[in-house]
Amino acid sequence: MLQEYTPKWRSFLSRRLTEALPVRYERARTDDFGIAVFSRSAWVRIERLELSFSGTPQLRVEYRLEDTSIVLYALHLIPPTLARYTQHRAEFADLLRRIGKEEHRTVLVGDFNFVDHSALASALHESGFYDAHGIAGCGRGETWPVNNWLRHVPGIRIDHVYLGRGLTSTASWVGGHTGSDHLPVGSTVVLANP
Description:
By secondary structure, this protein is an alpha+beta fold. The chain has four helices and eleven strands.
């Protein structure tokens, strides 16, 4: 899953990923809210969501793994700046409502624009979701900022892979600088032992 997916990134990545990841959904935008999902295997269903009428695209992708359905939410919540704080909270409240109704094992991945020790992350924990980095990663796992003068301050982790009930992680990592103002995150997700 890729966030901040622009037409420039689409022209650069789309051809390169086609052979390895032939199943895809791409919604390139010129702002920070373009999104793409690439996969080796076909999904059962993909839905474009808009949390709390924010105007930014989010995705719900349902996969089949043997006899189990896995749902992936590809998310980029609006930054909680002074002007957009209420909208950020409304998006998150809508997300909590949606995942509370999920009947399948669920993964939430993307730029949440909050750290894992925030009140919003605590609400996810209470709903049964835990950051894969906290389960199987090491170190602080900072993902932002990596560009401009802010790169000189200690980074924070605002990009996460949250795993719901019935899922765990055996590895979680932060990738190298790719030109984005965030570092990429990855995780090996497996079914948890019953």
